[in-house]
Write a structure and sequence with these properties.
alpha+beta, globular, single chain
């Protein structure tokens, strides 16, 4: 039983990591302007040269030509480092991203920085619509989130519950949460 559980966790971890990695993209900062900062290293602390985002965390507001993010990462790994919490990001149609400091933070007089991303806002919107369609297909096929053979939650429903609880998809704790909800 233990061996089967470990095998299931490994397979589930690989599946989750691959699915999650497909939605990450990177953006590179344009320029080295330090206005608003005392030096270059301080500016790079807030606006790193390369940043990463999960397309599934995008929010659409107003125009379909842009998507917004309130968080990003300095790297993509099991130990992803979140960016400075007071930043807002807007990705536009041509892959340009505006990164600015949100109101109410310590850096109120800092000019926005521009990034060039490996993806456009339209591509992010496509990913979001595909994921929405996948989730609705999964919920229809899983008969309200339960597996009729076991009486427990379906895999998609269990993963969704763990996301809602706050576990990070792809982490060991996320896998443990899913397995526990599946009855493993």
């Amino acid at each position: 039983m233990l061996r089967q559980t470990v095998q299931a966790l490994v397979v589930l971890g690989i599946f989750i990591s691959q699915a999650h990695a497909e939605t990450f993209f990177n953006c590179d900062r344009e320029g080295t302007d330090i206005s608003g900062f005392i030096n270059f290293p301080t500016m790079e602390t807030i606006f790193p040269k390369r940043i990463y985002f999960d397309a599934e965390q995008a929010v659409t507001k107003g125009s379909n030509a842009r998507v917004e993010f309130t968080s990003g990462y300095e790297n993509v790994s099991a130990q992803s480092t979140p960016l400075y919490h007071g930043l807002e990001f807007v990705l536009y149609d041509k892959g340009k991203m505006k990164a600015k400091v949100a109101r109410g933070t310590d850096y109120i007089h800092v000019m926005p920085r521009w990034y060039y991303c490996a993806i456009t806002s339209g591509e992010v919107l496509s990913i979001l619509s595909e994921k929405t369609a996948d989730r609705s297909d999964a919920s229809r096929s899983s008969s309200a989130g339960t597996d009729t053979q076991t009486g427990g939650l379906s895999l998609e429903a269990a993963k969704n519950e763990c996301r809602i609880i706050g576990f990070k998809e792809g982490s060991e704790k996320f896998g443990d949460c899913v397995m526990k909800l599946l009855g493993g």
